[in-house]
């Protein structure tokens, strides 16, 4: 699906024509530069590689500098491939937030906030143990995780404590409420994964 690379600015809320308060997320979408054009003849598939957010030459390798120099641009911090662009684009073309229109629906993918090592109550929504009847230290413990002599092991997939967050998450069918072309901003209904200034991909 065609789309753009963006950066999550933060959340806010706006009022619709009926006076209802709608929570929404502001994303800086583009401008993105076409840094490579994939073709069936050379690569076996068709796609556009887009680059977003300038990076200094000191922070990039010589190979990366040469790659972006072919497109006539400086090195980029984020590079993503998109398949399914209906309009043709050449190397070095710039794609802006005008790619989206108000009222259409988009999918936004990003990396969720890392929560570190968490217990089963926060990670999986366990209820926890009872607060009375003499129990002392098992308030938020998981309880039994398997049988004893048979099968004498814990099955894969058992919900237990562990690292939470920091995973790729895609939120589908978010409505585009507003497109601010002069500031390269897009406002979508609801929340998107990631912290402020996190990179996200917006797909039609």
UniProtKB/TrEMBL annotation:
<keyword id="KW-0689">Ribosomal protein</keyword>
<protein>
    <recommendedName>
        <fullName>Large ribosomal subunit protein uL3</fullName>
    </recommendedName>
</protein>
<dbReference type="Pfam" id="PF00297">
    <property type="entry name" value="Ribosomal_L3"/>
</dbReference>
<dbReference type="InterPro" id="IPR019927">
    <property type="entry name" value="Ribosomal_uL3_bac/org-type"/>
</dbReference>
<keyword id="KW-0238">DNA-binding</keyword>
<keyword id="KW-0687">Ribonucleoprotein</keyword>
<dbReference type="GO" id="GO:0003677">
    <property type="term" value="F:DNA binding"/>
</dbReference>
<dbReference type="InterPro" id="IPR009000">
    <property type="entry name" value="Transl_B-barrel_sf"/>
</dbReference>
<comment type="subunit">
    <text>Part of the 50S ribosomal subunit. Forms a cluster with proteins L14 and L19.</text>
</comment>
<dbReference type="GO" id="GO:0005840">
    <property type="term" value="C:ribosome"/>
</dbReference>
<comment type="similarity">
    <text>Belongs to the universal ribosomal protein uL3 family.</text>
</comment>
<comment type="function">
    <text>One of the primary rRNA binding proteins, it binds directly near the 3'-end of the 23S rRNA, where it nucleates assembly of the 50S subunit.</text>
</comment>
<dbReference type="InterPro" id="IPR019926">
    <property type="entry name" value="Ribosomal_uL3_CS"/>
</dbReference>
<keyword id="KW-0699">rRNA-binding</keyword>
<keyword id="KW-0694">RNA-binding</keyword>
<dbReference type="InterPro" id="IPR000597">
    <property type="entry name" value="Ribosomal_uL3"/>
</dbReference>
């Amino acid at each position: 699906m065609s789309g753009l690379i963006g950066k999550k600015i933060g959340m806010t809320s706006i009022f619709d024509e009926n006076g209802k308060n709608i929570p929404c997320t502001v994303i800086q979408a583009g401008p993105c530069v076409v840094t490579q054009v994939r073709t069936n003849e050379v690569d076996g598939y068709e796609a556009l590689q887009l680059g977003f957010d300038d990076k200094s030459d000191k922070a990039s390798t010589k190979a990366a500098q040469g790659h972006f120099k072919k497109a006539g641009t400086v090195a980029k911090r984020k590079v993503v491939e998109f398949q399914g662009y209906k309009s043709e684009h050449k190397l070095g073309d710039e794609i802006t937030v005008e790619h989206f229109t108000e009222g259409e629906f988009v999918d936004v993918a990003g990396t969720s906030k890392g929560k570190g090592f968490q217990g089963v109550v926060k990670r999986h929504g366990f209820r926890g143990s009872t607060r009375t009847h003499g129990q002392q230290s098992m308030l938020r413990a998981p309880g039994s995780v398997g049988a004893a002599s048979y099968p004498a092991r814990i099955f894969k997939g058992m919900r237990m404590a562990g690292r939470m967050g920091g995973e790729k998450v895609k939120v589908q069918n978010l409505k585009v409420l507003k497109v601010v072309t002069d500031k390269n901003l897009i406002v979508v209904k609801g929340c998107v994964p990631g912290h402020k200034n996190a990179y996200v991909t917006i797909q039609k």
